[in-house]
Description:
mainly alpha
Amino acid sequence: MSDHHSASPSGPGSDPHSGSSSGGGPAHGPAHYSDKDLQEEVYELETKSATAARLFDIRRLIGGLFVVYGVIVTIAGITASDADIDKAEGLNINLWTGLSMLALGLFFLAWLKLRPTAPPPPDAADAAQEQERGG
Length: 135
């Protein structure tokens, strides 16, 4: 973040634009932010929040885990011995389960790609906050 606080080299009371020395202090104190600065900071935080929401979307986690485990179980099914297949009454259960898990994981990842998480519109959030303040 950028630092918005800056000290005057000649001291706070020597500002030529501050008017008379009526004890009111300088116009720009160290804790003063302009509306533009606040809007930029809010926008930056909203962007970070939207990025975090997309990063930790449950579809990404579920899809990724199913793909990883699907690949592992599919490899186990491909390398299964005849004895392992005979135990499952002639069905290569690891191969079919692995392929199913792989398909489900790819479905979740495709769903995430086709319909990404959209942050709530800022107008609706602002209106809700104003209602809370007003009533």
